[in-house]
Amino acid sequence: MLIYYNLRHAISHKSSRPTQTSMNVDENMSVTSDKALIQKKKNSSNMILGGRIFRFKVSSFRLAEGFSLRRFSIMEATVLLILAFIASRGLGILRQTIFNMLFGTGPEANAFYAASRLPDTLFNLIAGGALTTAFIPVFLSQEKEYGKQKAWRLTSLVFNVMLVSLTLLILIGEFLAPDIVNNFVVPGYAPSDRALAVSLTRIMLLQPLILGLGTIITSILNGKRQFLLPALSIAVYNFGLIGGLLVSLAIPKVGIYGPTFGVLAAAICQVAVQVPALVKQGIRYSFVWDIKDQGLREVMRLVVPNALTVGVVSIGAFIDTIFASYLPDSASLSAIHNAQLLYAFPIALVSQAVGQALLPHLATQANMGQYVRLRHTAVKVMGISVILTLPAALLLWLLGKPVIHLLFQHGAFTKHSSDLTNLALIGYALGLPGIAAGDLIARGFFALKDTKTPLFTNIFAVAIRFGIIVLSLQILKGSFVILSIPLGTAVSATAEAVLLYLLLFLRLNVEVKNDKGMERLRRRQFLKKRSLHQGKGPDDYSNENKDPYVPKEGKT
Length: 556
What we know:
This protein is an all-alpha fold. Among the domains are: 327-514, no CATH class; 515-547. The protein contains 20 helices and no strands. Helix 5 (117-126) runs parallel beside helix 6, helix 6 (128-146) runs antiparallel to helix 7 and helix 7 (148-185) runs parallel beside helix 13. The protein starts with a helix and ends in a 22-residue tail after the last helix.
């Protein structure tokens, strides 16, 4: 033992003598490590929140070359989209103030709101949220597995199919507009008001074609985690509508047709502002028509349940409009629309902004089988978002009336219109947390390429919505009867959010068992427990050996 100790000590002493070469290498390594440390500190100084997908760097928002093509984390994209939604809603309030001043809650305003139902439904059925949540996961998986050329071919296919489908649906809608509006949208209105709603509907039906094709651009940019121009387009949309209202203000004879044509101008502005970023992506469009394409079939497989889900949601909107047309107060539909505009503000800031930024990250994690990270991301984002909506709901309830008076009570918008709008807003405020939570939780299913579960939960919600409205109409009397419609939305949205939450986390708990990262974590935990019993550290065991309990060589 003494000979072994002396020999080992001599070898160790000899190897510890620094040669000139080793000193130079050590010096270079030291300089390199110092530079790396300085760079790391420099980067960390820009970071407010840690984590690769939750990072927030102020430097990401500095104007520089390539700013429009910059990739953003969830936190950065959320802040960007929140700023865009604030600008959009601010312009939207300005737009609505001008609209209320010109048309109040009279017959022309009611006809305008009713006319938007069919175009909005067609857009959402074929494009809108139905296409976005189906296209992004498939686009990302195609690009990851087959490369950019295959992804651009899929984009061309989806664009061509959307163009043909929307054109056919719009032509059918133009022909059937009188029957749809008179029998399913506002059957309780006077014949003259229904005729005006039909005329406005036929003009607005061009909007889904423009926005539908623009949705593909938005989906591509969101999938690439480039949110600047899509965020800007949200705010730009209002300029077209404000321009139409200014035309009506300058030329009174134009009347309600000013904002109606302004809807088309707004759609063109929203699409046009995103085109430069798409061109910089190097898109390769080709006129291909291959219905049997695997990627297209996968998109369609996801779109169909999505479209049915949107259809069910649209049925809920039609239910609101139909019941509102029979309410004793003729200003009810306009009051409901104004209340929706106000409660949609916190929804846009929390649910839509976060959800739009969240989906590409969730889809990427699902494609890579990182279900533990997906669950962590979902819980973290959804929890924070729901917590934010609680004080927002309280503020709407407390400050709703003075805000309505300040913003809307001008010109044709009377005190009675303000009181009616405030009642509707109180009802919607009760469902604000549920609406935000349900929208965000549904993104988790979309990332997992599961669009059937949100469809069934939407059917469940519409049934509850209809039942609550019918029950409330029997209970509420006088001016309070308008509360029946927003209460139906609030109760059904909250019930659906609870159901979606339970289903999503049951699903993720099953998927987590297949996560490779979880397997490694269980192995580390086992080795840690074993080391506590044997007095060895977890690093004393080989992670590369098939038998994790065999110690490394030399550790005898």
